[in-house]
């Protein structure tokens, strides 16, 4: 026990009990017990209110009142130290009542010996400390010691209620470090943590005791300034915060320069409740970032009313948090082998479950995520979720298939990308042969030898590579033979009008022949009609994907699809032999 002297207050009516208890505790060396005694109920309550003891031993019999009453009253009066009940004889009913009332333990006097009493006291104190520590951890950020998100929200609600009562203003500042990810990536998490600690300390020491500084997570901090006189006051503080954060930080013998972007929303003009105020300060912070970082911006209504630009800003702000708030999900679309009718792969397609708008398709937010770099962490999430999910399916006994994952150029260009893929595979325990990465044509051809090497490293891991949207990238075909590619995916823009459009039909046929000539497989995307199916089948296309078979579906539907209608090949004839397709029944199976 840390504190080697434990102050004990014994409350009972008989002095001889005090003497015997003293004797029991006398031998203890560590901790050393210092026993005090009071006999009356009121005197006991008075002493307990002074909060001067580490533990209380309360007799059940205290004249007209009982020890149970004293426990309840002590707790009601704010007693935080543990209370232990002492009874004359074993009584389960009293024990239970005592514990319910808040006692740490209940002991029968005649059973007590020195050892038992010491242990009971020490356990009670340790348990109390553990509870206090847990309560602290639930409210404070363990890295910086600042208020955490939940305490911050509570304090903000209280601050707004106070401001409403007193007719005052509150400024909420949302502060995010610029390019913190670069620091984390280059110094590692320990280095990043040290930076966060230094910044947290600077913010704390600048603010008054009555102001709140919180860390919401990652590199996001908030400051609540109560009782501000004018907007200029908030401006001055923001200006000062920019300066103190920008002071060099020494970490791992390196001098680093960190800058923040700060968004400010003022209560009550720009948010009457905590949620609105937080959302608006966040949006203003994002505006500061977009306008060059290392700056502060006040939230104004024009940020909302400024048509398309503001919608874009609001969407980007939400997108930045979507990952933390677990708003992304994956749907899966099957790719069907044309010979066997079996599912050979499931393409993971990202969906954003927007709290107000519902499911948003990737075309609406991936370009934004590409532009602001969010695609890198989002893509990592997609990759690990898809691998984990596929492993789960395999372990649950579903037929083995690959999962294919779309890659963005920004992800692929990361220096550590191959290592990341390897560690995701290791974590998910998915056999690499069941992962396929889909890269776009332009991604490969825009870069140089680096892509070839990276592709070779990926292939060396044992995963498959396909070229997505093939035919849309204006690339030189001669490049194709330089890359270790398994599959070409014909873009759906060439599939939509076959067989009626001669040009598209010729292109699709040419692509199939080209891929086969280079010993690659071909998948046609966007197959919606039987005529397209027939055409592609005749030309020897290996696999197809499209609404004719199934749209992308939620993971649960993949399981039920396999169980109900996706399992067996359709038609007659042996696999690989001559196979007569019964497309309408196949399509029926797929569409349920
Ligand atoms: N009209 C029509 N469309 C069909 C048919 N069959 C499938 N599709 C749609 O075609 C898209 C196929 O994916 P993609 O070419 O890789 O095109 C994807 C891919 O480029 C990108 N994307 C999706 N998920 C991710 C991801 O996790 N990471 C990255 N970087 N990009 C992704 O967003 C694009 C659009 O995805 P989705 O909206 O899910 O749209 C999917 C799918 O729903 C059909 O028969 N007819």
Widest sheet: strand ordering: 15-16-18-19-20-21-22-23
Total helical segments: 22
Q: Whole-number average pLDDT?
A: 88
Strand count, sense and barrel status of the largest sheet are: 8 strands, mixed, barrel
Percent of residues in helices: 40-55%
Structural class: alpha/beta
- DSSP strand (E) fraction? 15-25%
- The end-to-end distance, rounded to whole angstroms, is 66 Å
Name the poorly predicted regions: 567-582
**What characteristic shape results from the CA principal axes?**
elongated
Rg, rounded, reads: 34 Å
* Ligands bound, unique: ligand C2E
- What is the number of E strands? 23
Account of the 3D structure:
The chain is α/β, with parallel strands linked by helices. It has 22 helices and 23 strands. The longest helix is centred in the first third of the chain and has 27 residues, at 180-206. It is elongated. It binds ligand C2E.
For this entry, give a set of tags.
elongated; binds ligand C2E; alpha/beta; 8-stranded mixed beta barrel; 5-stranded parallel sheet; 592 residues; 21% strand; single chain
Briefly say what this structure is:
With 592 residues, this protein is an alpha/beta fold. Ligand C2E binds at residues 333, 349-350, 361-363, 366, 379, 382, 406-408, 438, 468-469, 492, 525-528, 545-547, 552. This is EAL domain-containing protein.
Blueprint (SSEs and pairs):
Layout: E1 5-11, H1 15-26, E2 32-38, H2 41-49, E3 55-59, E4 61-62, E5 65-66, H3 67-76, E6 83-87, H4 92-101, E7 105-108, H5 114-139, H6 149-166, E8 169-177, H7 180-206, E9 212-217, E10 220-228, H8 231-246, E11 249-251, E12 254-256, E13 260-267, H9 274-290, E14 296-298, H10 302-305, H11 307-322, E15 328-337, E16 343-354, E17 358-360, H12 362-372, H13 375-395, E18 402-406, H14 409-413, H15 417-428, E19 435-440, H16 441-446, H17 449-461, E20 464-470, E21 487-490, H18 492-495, H19 502-517, E22 521-524, H20 530-538, E23 543-544, H21 555-564, H22 583-591
Parallel strand pairs: 1-2, 1-3, 3-6, 6-7, 13-14, 16-18, 18-19, 19-20, 20-21, 21-22, 22-23
Antiparallel strand pairs: 4-5, 8-10, 8-13, 9-10, 11-12, 15-16, 15-23, 16-17
Ligand C2E binds next to strand 16, helix 12, helix 13 and strand 20.
């Amino acid at each position: 026990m840390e504190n080697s002297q434990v102050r004990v207050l014994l409350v009972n009516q008989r002095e001889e009990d005090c003497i015997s208890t003293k004797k029991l505790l006398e031998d203890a060396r560590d901790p050393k017990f210092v026993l005090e005694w009071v006999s009356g109920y009121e005197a006991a309550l008075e002493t307990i209110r002074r909060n001067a003891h580490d533990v209380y031993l309360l007799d059940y019999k205290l004249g007209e009142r009982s020890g149970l009453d004293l426990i309840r009253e002590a707790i009601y009066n704010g007693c935080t130290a543990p209370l232990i009940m002492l009874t004359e004889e074993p009584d389960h009913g009293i024990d239970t009542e005592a514990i319910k009332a808040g006692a740490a333990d209940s002991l029968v006097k005649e059973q007590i010996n020195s050892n038992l009493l010491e242990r009971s006291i020490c356990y009670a104190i340790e348990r109390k400390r553990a509870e206090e520590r847990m309560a602290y951890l639930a409210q404070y950020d363990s890295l910086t010691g600042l208020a955490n998100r939940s305490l911050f929200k509570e304090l903000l609600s209280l601050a707004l209620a106070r401001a409403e009562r007193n007719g005052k203003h509150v400024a909420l500042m949302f502060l995010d470090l610029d390019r913190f990810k670069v620091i984390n990536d280059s110094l590692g998490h320990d280095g990043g943590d040290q930076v966060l600690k230094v910044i947290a300390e600077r913010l704390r020491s600048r603010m008054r005791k009555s102001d709140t500084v919180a860390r919401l997570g990652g590199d996001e901090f908030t400051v609540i300034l109560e009782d501000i006189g004018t907007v200029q006051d908030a401006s001055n503080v923001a200006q000062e915060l920019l300066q103190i954060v920008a002071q060099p930080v020494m970490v791992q013998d390196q001098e680093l320069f960190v800058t923040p972007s700060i968004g400010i929303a003022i209560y009550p003009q720009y948010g009457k409740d905590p949620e609105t105020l937080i959302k608006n300060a966040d949006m203003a912070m994002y505006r500061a970032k977009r306008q060059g970082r290392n700056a502060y911006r006040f939230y104004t209504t024009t940020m909302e009313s400024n048509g398309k630009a503001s919608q874009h800003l609001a969407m980007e702000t939400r997108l930045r948090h979507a990952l933390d708030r677990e708003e992304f999900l994956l749907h899966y679309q099957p790719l069907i082998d044309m010979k066997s009718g079996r599912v050979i792969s499931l393409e993971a397609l990202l969906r954003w479950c927007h709290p107000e708008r519902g499911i948003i398709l990737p075309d609406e937010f991936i370009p934004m995520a590409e532009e602001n770099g969010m695609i890198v962490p989002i893509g990592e999430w997609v990759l690990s979720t898809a691998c984990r999910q596929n492993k789960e399916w395999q372990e649950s006994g579903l037929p083995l298939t690959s999962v294919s994952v779309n890659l963005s150029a920004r992800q692929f260009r990361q220096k550590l990308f191959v290592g990341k893929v390897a560690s995701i595979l290791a974590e998910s325990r998915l056999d690499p042969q069941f992962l396929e990465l889909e890269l776009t044509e332009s991604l490969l051809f825009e870069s140089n030898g680096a892509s070839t090497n990276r592709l070779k490293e990926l292939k060396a891991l044992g995963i498959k590579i396909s070229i997505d949207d093939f035919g849309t990238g204006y690339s030189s075909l001669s490049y194709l033979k330089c890359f270790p590619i398994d599959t070409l995916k014909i873009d759906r823009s060439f599939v939509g009008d076959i067989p009626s459009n001669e040009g598209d039909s010729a292109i699709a046929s040419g692509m199939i022949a080209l891929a086969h000539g280079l010993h690659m497989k071909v998948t046609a995307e966007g197959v919606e009609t039987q005529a397209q199916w027939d055409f592609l089948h005749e030309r020897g296309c290996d696999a197809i994907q499209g609404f004719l078979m199934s749209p992308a579906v939620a993971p649960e539907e993949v399981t039920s699809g396999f169980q109900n209608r996706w399992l067996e090949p359709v038609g007659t004839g042996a696999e690989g032999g001559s196979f007569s397709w019964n497309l309408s029944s196949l399509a029926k199976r797929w569409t349920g």
